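so my prof wants the structure for this chain in the tokens format not the other one, which i didnt know existed until like an hour ago. anyway here's the sequence
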Amino acid sequence: MGDPAKRQAITNPTNTIYSIKRFMGCRFDEVKKEVDRVPYNVIKGENNTPRIQINDRNYSPQEISAMVLQKIKKTAEDFLDKKLVKL
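here's what i got, hopefully its the right format
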């Protein structure tokens, strides 16, 4: 996230995920043009869903978004020096 992700996008574009919301709730066939615009691997998963391939694992767009939200929460907790229990 943020500046580190921007730097990583230059050196490691296939493992830097961005604009993931455009794939949420869509079928793979519906986002084919978008797939061609990103440097990371988007493959056709079960039931024609888009899956993001990172190393040897495939993630749904929702899983990627959950990881981003977890990172945001952790960053906020570290800054505030306390656990966040309600969002």
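also thought this was worth mentioning. The chain has one domain: 2-80.
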